[in-house]
Amino acid sequence: MCGIVGAISQKNIVPILIEGLKRLEYRGYDSAGIAVIQHQHLSRVRSTGRVKQLEEEVNQHQVTGFIGIAHTRWATHGVPSERNAHPHVSLDGVAVVHNGIIENYEELRRQLQSEDYLFTSETDTEVIAHLVHSFYRQHHDLKLAVRESLARLEGAYAIAVMVEDKPHQLMAARLGSPLLIGLGEEGYYLASDASALISVTQKMLYLEEGDVVELTHTGYSICDAMGESVERPFHISELSADNVELGPYQHYMQKEIAEQPRAITDTVEKVLGLGFSSQLFGATAQEVLPHIKGVMILACGTSYHAGLVARYWVEHITQLPCVVEVASEYRYRTSVPQTDYLVVTISQSGETADTQAALKHAKALGHHHTLTICNVPESALIRQSELSFLTRAGIEIGVASTKAFTTQLVALFSLAVVIAKEQERLTKEHEGEYLDALRRLPNKIQHVLNLEPQLKLWADRIAQKEHVLFLGRGIHYPIALEGSLKLKEISYIHAEAYPAGELKHGPLALVDERMPVIAVAPNDNLLEKLKSNLQEVKARGGVLYVIADNDSHFKAEEGIHVIRMPDHEGILSPIMHVVPLQLLAYHVACQRGTDVDKPRNLAKSVTVE
To answer: 223 an active-site residue?
Structure first.
C-alpha cells in the first residue's frame, strides 16, 4: 500500500527520492510528499496528484538536500488531501513518514493535545511526529526519542524519522510492515519495497520485526526489539531497472499478461528439473508432507481464488481434505483447529497484513506445519513459515494480479502432486502425465494470448454495460470469480460470479438483454450440465459470451458469441481459462478510459488490516 523511500548521502538525494516514489506508484496511492534537510532547514512538499506533479513542484521550489524522506500514501485515517499527506512534521523540524496503522492513536492524540501540540491532519501518523518531538525536546537524542516513542505505539508500522538539527542522522524502524536498507556506492537508503532502490543499488538487507536502524553518511547500525546490536544479512536483489520498464506495452497489466508464458516457464523450471520432489518446498518438507492429514489455505483476494482452485486439486490428487479460508475473516471466528493439517498461506507480496495475522492465529491454535507460496524472497510470510515455494513471476506492477496468480496456481498444483507422492498416493503414470502437462503449459498459454484480437471485439460491446454475470462450474467456478474480480478492479463495472448450476436459484432474475453473461466452458465432465444452464440464459433473452475449448462443440449463433481456446488441457485447464478473462477485463478498462495499472481506491500490497 503506502510506500517509503529515504536516503542519506554526500550528494543531492532529491532525484533518488523522486525516482523511488515513481517506482512505488504501482502499489497504489492518493497523495505523495517529500521532506529534506536543506542547510539545517526542513523543506517539505506534498501533493494529491501523481508523483510527476510532485516532482514539478519540487523542481519549482529548487528543493535539494543530502538527507530526506519521501512517501506515497493510500488513505486509511483521513481523506486523501494535502494536509493528510506524508511526511508529517512536528516542532523543531521533526519529520516522519509511516506505513501501517497506529491502533492507539486516539489516546495518544488526546494526550499530546493536552501538552499543547497542534494537530493539522486527520491521520494516525501525525501522533508519531509529535510523540518523537515530545521525547526529543527532553534530551536531544533522536535515536533515544524514536525508541521511547515506539514503546508507546500499538499497531503496525514502518517509519522513517529525521530532525532538522541532526542533518547527518536518519532513523527508521519496523513492526508488522516491511522495510529494507539499501547500500549504495554514494549513500545509504531506506525503502518499503526493493523496486524503489534498484536505480541506485541491488545490495539490500531486510529488517526484522522490532528492528530499529540508524543511518549516517558513514554507515548504519541496527538494534533488535530488545535493544541489542545485531547484524542482518545482505542480499543481492534479482531486480533490475529493466524489470520495471514498460517497453512496447501500453500498460504494465498488458505487459504482465503477455509475460505469463515466461513466468510459468521460470516457475516450473525447478519442478521439471527435480520432478515432484519435496525439496521444492524446503529442507524439512520430506519430514512434514508424508504425515499431514489435510490442508488449510489462508489467503485474500486473487490469492484466495487460487486457493479455491487448489482445493479441487488437493482433494482430487491427494484424497486429503482441503479447506480454504478468507484470511481477513479466519481469526475472527471460533474455529476447530486441525493441528495435523498443513497451513498454506498465499500472497503475491508476502506482506499481506490479513494473511500474516491469520498465520499468526493459526500458529497460536497449535498449527505447527506452515508453508507460504509467494513471489517475493525475504518477505515476512516466507520468514514466518516453516516451508516455502517462491514463484518466479518477476515483479508485478499492475494492481490487478495476473502473472502472480497463474504462477501461484502452478505452485499449488505442484504442492498437491508432491503431497500425493510423499504419501504414496501417486502412480508413476499420473506423475508423468502431470509433468508433461506442466511442460506444455507455457506454449498453450501463448496460443491463448493469440486470441487477444477477438477478445478486444468482445470488450467493445461489454464496455457499454454496467453489470456483467460470470458463470463457471466445478474447478472453473473460482476462475469465474477471478474474472469477475478483474473486471470490477480495473473497469469499475459491477460484476458477479456464480456456479452455473445456481442460476435458477436466484441470479436468473437478473438476466435480460442488458446483462452480458460470460461463461467459462471447458470440455470437461460438466460441459453438458453447463450447456443446459446457458440455455436458461438464452431463453430469458440474455446475451452469452462463451470461452470454450476447441473440442467443446459450442456453436456461435444469435445471442451466443464463442471464442475457441486450444483443445482441453485437462487438470491444468483453469490456468489457461483465466488468461482470456484477464485480457477481456484489460481491454474493457481501456475502452472505458480508466487507470488500468492504478485503479481507484486500490493498492497493490495490502499491508494494513
So the answer is: no
Cβ atoms < 10 Å from Cβ of 526:
20
Instruction: Read off the DSSP letter of residue 552.
Output: S
For residue 532, the model assigns a pLDDT of: 75
**Which DSSP category does 117 fall into?**
P
Q: Taking the model in full, what pTM does it have? A: 0.79
> What's the alpha-carbon Rg for the chain, to the nearest Å?
25
CB atoms within 10 A of CB 277: 16
Weakly modelled stretches of the chain, pLDDT under 50: none
Cβ neighbours of residue 267 under 8 Å, at least 6 residues apart?
Answer: 391, 392, 393, 407, 410, 411
Residue type, 192: S
Alpha helices (H) along 325-422: 327-330, 353-364, 380-384, 403-422
Mind listing the pLDDT tens digit for each residue in 123-169?
A: 999 999 999 999 999 999 999 999 999 999 998 899 999 999 999 99
pLDDT of 452 reads 94
> Sheet containing 155-163: which strands, arranged edge to edge?
88-89, 94-102, 155-163, 170-175, 212-215, 220-223, 229-230
Rounded Cα–Cα distance for residues 309 and 315 (Å): 11
Helix, strand, or coil here: 198? coil
Strand partners, 204: 182, 235
Q: How far apart are CA 329 and CA 331, in angstroms?
A: 6
Using CA atoms, how far apart are residues 419 and 502, in angstroms rounded to an integer? 33
- Measured at the CA of 246, the angle between CA 242 and CA 251, to 5 degrees, comes to 155
* Three-state SS at 469: strand
Q: For residue 557, what are the contacts with CB-CB under 8 A and spacing of at least 6?
A: none
Indicate the residue type of 532. Answer: S
Q: Which three cell numbers stand for residue 119?
A: 494537530
The string of DSSP codes covering 203-271 is EEEEPPTT-EEEE-SS-EEEE-TTS-EE---EEE-S--GGGG--TT-SSHHHHHHHTHHHHHHHHHHHH
DSSP string, 342-367: EEEEEESSS--HHHHHHHHHHHHTT-
Taking residue 81's Cβ as centre, other Cβ atoms within 10 Å add up to 16
Catalytic one of 166, 255, 598, 604: 604
2 carries an active-site annotation: yes
